Amino acid sequence: MGEEYIVHSEEEICEIRKAANATAVVRERLRKMVQPGMSTYDIDEMAHQLIMQSGGISAFYGYKNFPGFICISINDEVVHGVASKNKIIAEGDLVSLDMGVDIGGYVGDTATSFVAGSAPIPKQTRFLLEKTHKALMKGVEAARAGNRVRHISEAVERVAKEANLGIVREYVGHGIGTHLHEPPEIPNFSSNCSGPVLRNGMVLAIEPMFNLGTHKVKTDKDNWTVRTSDGKLSAHFEHMVLVKDDKPEVLTWPRMM
User: pLDDT means per 10 residues in the chain (257 residues)?
Assistant: First the structure.
């Protein structure tokens, strides 16, 4: 990971903010709609309708030939879960929704994890969700002008290490704005590369993926669905953040519901 990065203009940021907010609204509405007994195909179709209602199109559909409108990952699935009529959500499943909305060439990207249904959440599952979300917010706090990418990575990693959770290493955060993936990459772990200095106008997608067990993952035969190597649960949260001179602005808080 080198020093490459993109600083967006005020005009671009205005449009990126709209796409990010639309994505956040879709995320929150869809989360409330997910119920045990639904197939992931049903959820993907609902997401498609919500994305169209937002005035955008899916930023994921067809991206590198991805076949779904969003990614729906369950339990030990980490990311890139492909919708299927045969995959049914059960009471107590840990569901991760990752989605992107493109509005006029500007892109929003966000993810959340939660437990389906109303049954009591097991202690370990709650722990995983709470720590992964905490790591996201610690990463957001570090996304300040003058810091480097490594400060975000270290903030996220610190939470995982204290909680003894596995940090997925193959998939990382990234810049975003006029393309779904822009430089720089934002690992959820520290490395020898400090990354570029964060500057006012950079837009970043910070997305920790933590596992209850090993950090190691494997990919299913569909060449998309990534799951933990040991079959233990995984959680994934993601926000888009605008780097500013004072404090970072989270662009994926829903402002209009």
Answer: 85 98 98 98 98 98 98 98 98 98 98 97 98 98 97 98 98 98 97 91 98 98 98 98 94 74
State how far the Cα of 112 lies from the Cα of 92, in Å rounded to an integer.
16
Instruction: Kindly tell me the sign of the dihedral angle through the C-alpha atoms of 44, 123, 209, 239.
Output: positive
- Closest to 47 measured CA to CA, from 81, 18, 76: 81
What are the C-alpha distances in Å from 99 to residues 10, 24, 57, 91, 132?
Answer: 25, 9, 11, 23, 18
Query: Position of tokens 């933590």?
Result: 210
Evaluate whether 227 touches 78 at the Cβ level (below 8 Å).
Answer: yes
* Structure-block tokens of residue 113: 């994890």
Q: Which residue from 40, 47, 42 is spatially nearest to 72, judged by alpha carbons?
A: 40
Given a contact cutoff of 8 angstroms between Cβ atoms, the answer to whether 206 and 187 are in contact is no
Q: Which of 223, 226, 127 is nearest to 172 (CA)?
A: 226
CATH of domain 10-250: 3.90.230.10
Instruction: For CA atoms 242, 128, 256, 178, give the dihedral sign.
Output: positive
Query: Which ranges of the chain does DSSP label H, i.e. alpha helix?
Result: 10-33, 40-53, 123-141, 149-163
- Taking the C-alpha atoms of residue 45 and residue 39, their distance in angstroms, rounded to an integer, is 10
Find all residues with CB under 8 Å of 161, minimum gap 6, and list them. none
83: closest CA among 129, 136, 30?
Answer: 30
Q: How far apart are CA 70 and CA 112, in angstroms?
A: 12
Q: Please tell me the distance from the alpha carbon of residue 177 to that of residue 106, in angstroms, as a whole number.
A: 6
